[in-house]
C-alpha cells in the first residue's frame, strides 16, 4: 500500500470512529424493543392463519362457492399481495422520514394495519345484505375486501421485515429477532387453532365431522377475536418501538464509508441487487419454504375432513395446533443450531423433518383403528411443524444475510421475496383447486386420495428442489462480497444507479 493509499485508509478509519461515537450503531437491541418488535406482525399472523387454514373451507362449505371459485379468490388475494409487496418495498425504501416524521417504516406499517382492520372482518363473514344474491355478485363483493386486506397485509409485512436490518447489524441479534418474530407467528397460529377447536367443539350441532353453512357464526366470532387481539399487539408495537429519527440517507451514507479488511462497502440499489446470483437463489429458497408451509396449511383441514372422515371436526384445529406448538418449541434453539451448523445445513435438517411428515400423511389413511389414526396424524403434524419452522426461520435469516449492511434497499429485497412466494402459492393452490374432484358435501374415495396426494407429493417435490438449490450455494458467502478496494484518487462520485436511488418518493416526505 502506498503512502497516499495508506493515508486515505486511515482517514476513513478516523471518520468511521467519529461517526460511530456521535451516532452509535444499534448492535444490541434492548429487551423492551425486541418484545415490541416481535409482536409487530401478530395482526398479520393471526389473519394469515385464518386466511390459509380456513379460506377454502369457508368459501366452499359455508358460502357454497365451487372449489375452483374458492381457489380463484385465494389467487386474487395472492396476486394482489404480490403486486403490493413490490410497490411497498420500493416506495418504503425511497421514503424519507415518514408522515409527520413518524418513521418511514412505521408509517407504511400503520397504513397496513388500518387496511387490515377495516377489511378482514368482511372476508370471513356472510355477504352483508347480499348473502342470497347470485354467486358471481358475492364473488365480486369478497374480491374487493380481499384486495384491500392483502394490500394492508403486505404493507405491514414488508416494513416489519425491513426493520430487522435497521435495528441491528449483528448477525446473532438478527437471527434472534427473526426467531422471536417467528415465535410470535407460531403463537398466533396456536391461538387461532386453539380458539377454533373450542368453537368447533362447543358448537358441534348435529354433524360432528363436517362444516356447513350453519357454522358461519363460528367464523364470524373467530374473526372478531383475531381483530381484537391483533389491535392490542399493534398498539404495543407502535408505542413501544421507536424508529430512528436520523434521516435515512445519513445513516446509509455512514454505512457506505464503513471499512472492513476487504475494503469499503459498496452502495447497493435495486438494480444492483437484481444483478446478484445469490439474490435469486435466496428468493427460490424463501419461495419454496413458504410453498411447503402454505400448501400444507391450506389443505390439512380438507385432508382431515375428506380423507380422514371418521375423526371429529375439532381435529381441523387440533392437528395444525400440534404442528405450530412443535414449531414454536423448535424456534427456541434455532440461534444455537444456526451458529453450530450454519444456515444451509440447518435448512437441510428442517427439510428432512418435512419429508418424514409426508410419509406419515401417506400411510395414515390406511390405518383402520381411530386411535392409531389420531396418533399418526399428530405425529405427522409435529414433524411438519419442526420442519416448516426451521426452514422458514433459516430462509428469513438467509435473506437478512443477503441484505447485510445495505439497508438502503432492504424493503425492496423483502418485497421481491414476498412477491415470488405469494405468486407461487396463489398459482399452485388455484391449480390444485381447479382439478379438485371433490363435490360439495360429498366425500368420495377419489376425493380422499386427492388430498392424500397433495399433502405428500407437493411437499416432497418442493423440498427436493430446495435441497438442490441449497447445495448450489453451499460454499457461497451470502452478502459478504460487496467490498471494493480503496484506490488512490477514489472519490464518492455517485453512479447513475445511486442518483436514481436518491430521487426520493414524493408520496411521503
From TrEMBL:
InterPro entries linked: MFS_2, MFS_trans_sf
GO molecular function annotations of the record: symporter activity
GO CC annotation: plasma membrane
Region (Disordered): 488-509
Any GO BP: carbohydrate transport
Keyword annotations from UniProtKB, A to Z: Membrane, Transmembrane, Transmembrane helix
Transmembrane portions of the chain: 35-59, 71-90, 110-128, 140-162, 182-202, 222-241, 283-305, 314-334, 346-365, 377-399, 411-432, 453-474
Family per record: Belongs to the major facilitator superfamily.
Protein name: Uncharacterized protein
